[in-house]
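Hi L.,

You mentioned the student needs an example of a multi-chain input paired with its predicted structure. This one should do, with 210 residues in total across all chains.
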Amino acid sequence: MNLILLGAPGAGKGTQATKIADRYGLVHISTGDIFRANIKNGTKIGLLAKSYIDKGELVPDEVTCEIVKDRLTWEDCKKGYLLDGFPRNTFQADYLDKCAKIDAVVNINIDFSLLMDRLCGRRVCKECGESYHVSTLGGKTDCARCGGELYQRKDDNPETVKSRLDVYEAQTAPLIDYYTKKGLILNFTGTEAPAEVLFEEIKAKLDELK
Ligand code: AMP
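Structure written out for the whole complex:
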């Protein structure tokens, strides 16, 4: 099963992605994680990506599409994959159409007014990528799941979040329509309810597909 996970920054894609990938044995491919790993390792791609990520803008399509196209040729993708954060505009979606067969698009809709606080208060585990909100951590700085150190992403600040949300509305949200027309969309509502509740709903729909 090859899936796309769609949703605004802060909608809870990362958390759901881990759960979905675990449950269905899929490879989790997050373009954001790929860029962050490149930045950490000081690669040429990392250097280029950083200048866009720090401003909340999209990394150029040529670079992003090439990375994804290559990643999809890896042996592990044969068991199925979950794309998280790609595609982010119609150019990327058209590109993907030519190199992949997608079975469904999981779209998490969310009230935009929740997102600024969610993102600016987000803390992420350096090891496993699990996210938390600072208001629930009670001062803890390590991950409840794996013990890894929690950190605040550099792009989780008010100014960058504002531009990421603008980019989402202008460029990524049209993909909901794009995939609805292709009959691939599965719609869900992300709320403040625990992530497990949303995951149960997603699981019920994906089990039907299998
Ligand atoms: P994310 O971790 O998905 O929130 O992505 C963090 C940042 O990485 C985004 O704000 C973009 O700057 C960049 N990025 C991630 N995925 C893409 C993509 N598909 N196309 C362009 N830029 C991307």
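You could point out the following to them. The mean pLDDT is 96. The longest strand covers residues 104-110.

Best wishes,
N.
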